[in-house]
# Entry
Amino acid sequence: MKREITFTLNGYEVSAEVESHRVLLEVLRDTFDLKGTKPGCGQGECGACTVLVDGVNVDSCLYPAFEIEGKTVTTIEGLIREGNRLHPIQEAFVAHGGIQCGFCSPGMIMSATALLSENPAPSDDEIKQGISGNLCRCTGYVQIVESIRDAAAGMKQNAG
Amino acid sequence: MKKFDYHMPESLHEAFGLMEKYQGRARYIAGGTDVMVRVKQGAARPDALISLRHIEALKGMHWNGALRLGSMTLFRDLERDKDVERTYAALAQAVRVLANPQVRNVATIGGNLANAAPSADCAPPLLVMEAICRIDGPGGEREVPVEAFFLGPGKTCMTETEVLKAIEIPAPDKGAVTAFAKAGRVSQDIALVNAAVMLVMDGPVCKDCRLAAGAVAPVPLRLKRAEEAVTGREITPDLLDHVKGIVEEEVRPITDVRSSAEYRRIMSGVLVKRAIGQATGGIV
# Structure
């Protein structure tokens, strides 16, 4: 069955006709051509498909398309700042080598965004728990934790 | 993957009607973190999914001495609730190590129980707190103690149309302490063994004890023989070793992809002992 859904995507109100058996990941990549969100395990374990729905990080590979109605969705593309500048979390990942092949990075950064919006000054343990749903095969996580730690410090400084 | 219809009823009455219309070829879906995986893998091939997410009667957390959790209560909310942490420590501990943040942000306690995995992390805490499952269906409401809710792996006592409406957790006994322990290969793993304990202590003597373990039998288990060995006794290292032995005999684990029966048997004793230590603040 098909249905038109209306929701907010990266700040814009959008509509699309979607099929009932689709998931948010497919809607983002296929309907809206936003390829930043990656298909990984398809089972809610690797986190490569992580996006924010109403500010909270979720696996878009398991999120039924019809349930997006009325929600606010943010993808990695939505983090871009004025003048095409990177979000502070993205800048920190670049500065600290938190990105190698880059496949986990959008999901990892979206989880970091969710973490820091709820807990602006996380301990290293809290950072690790915050990204415990995002797998990385390249970095060994050390540089990722550093990137998030640094991003938190930087964002706190700018806010204060 | 077979295509499916997706319905979002706004009342239980509507949900029951839809389920009856599909005559066994539809499934209820809550957060979707179990159902969507099964459907995508082809393990489940429903004609339709009936979402429970928009039914007000299934939502909300109500305190009244006891705690009534609507089945659609998100783990995300349970995780962050200070009153739950203070009153039902074992449940709070279990929720914190269940899957990962992205899953917890959409998954529900009702869905976890209805999925009826023997390894369900919520189950041992609810067993030791003797929670009650409130079920609703076209035939009316009924209540079932959580111990009788699970019938086997993936199987509950509910009929096809029935829905788990709420979980009622009695107020803890005065002086009760609880704890939860889980063994997994890695973080976010499904438990290869999990365990929960509830103890009412009088100094070093345990006046009342309830123990439960998951992933070591077709259903989450109350360990009644082990409980008898603790109740009324002073908790000492020797007693705990003795209890560990009883637990090992009481569980019925299998070997599967996650672990061997032997390791599970050993770890069930270890986790019960560890959880008792945690609950009593390390008296032993």
